Amino acid sequence: MYAIKDGIVRIDSTQGRQRIGLGGFLVLTFALSWLGAAPMVLASWLDADSPVAWQTLLHALTPLQPLMFFGALISTLLATGLNHGRRGLRELLGGLVRWRVGMGWYLGVLALPGLICIAAAYGGPVVDGSLPAFSLQGSALLAVAQIFGVYLLLNSEELAWRGYALPQLQARLRPLQANLSLALIWGAFHSPYFMMKGGHPGGYGVLTFALMILAIGLVMGMAFNATRGSILVCHLLHQSLNAWGEGLRLFPTMNHGSPWPFRLMVGGIACAGIAAAIWLWRRHGGRPVAADGLAGAPAST
What we know:
InterPro entries: MmRce1-like (IPR042150), Rce1/LyrA-like_dom (IPR003675). GO terms for molecular function: endopeptidase activity. This is CAAX protease self-immunity. The chain crosses the membrane at residues 20-43, 63-82, 103-122, 134-154, 204-224, 260-281. The protein is mainly alpha-helical. It has one domain. The protein is 67% helix and 3% strand. The protein has helices at residues 22-45, 52-61, 67-94, 103-127, 138-154, 157-170, 175-189, 191-194, 206-226, 231-247, 260-285, and strands at 2-5, 8-11. Strands 1-2 form a two-stranded antiparallel ribbon. The radius of gyration is 20 Å and the shape is globular.
């Protein structure tokens, strides 16, 4: 399923034509996940005085809500199985247990988000004087650990985005272009949150969210290629960011309505994203995709 050339993980097109192309995979992923998100969006607009028809529709859609968490996983397993069979599924899922990547990667993906978020939590009251001073307590660290554990189990997005979509895009585009394209797709995937009444539950705007998604996507794209396709590293990084941001209550709706702690967090992530973009460009950006695009050692070795 995978092949590596010039340190870039790509899909191995020499295995024949795919039964479900990248476009079909994205349509299926969005359809399943957005169907699962529909009850959340609809519930935000309804109240006790809403028409019975809308209440009935919400009741009918509620059982589909798990698709919001597992729709991407279902579409990824389906597309991989149809296109690459059991071997492809083994390689895909093998990325979740590809742990021999060097201790530095684990320190980076677990500690760097924490350092950025802690700095943002302390810096928020400095920028916005209306905020109370921040003090890192054991209860906050416990909350981070609990949220991290929940997201590790429930959030399966990285199998879809880095495990399946990114190798497909990198077979067509240079790595930096592929990761920028995937960031746009990934951002659009989260659109239902902004369709809720009052906007995103975290209280931040589309542009701030887009900047964060772009930066995180570049960092994870760098990590995925540098670790020869370790979905595990990307998964840990993704959930570490989620856990630190929520556990330290950096979102405006959790922090007296102030946007500054979250903005500082996004600023720190943006700096990491710029560094990742430079890494992708300097190491791979000037090289065109080869005609076969995919000769090289399997990523699973």
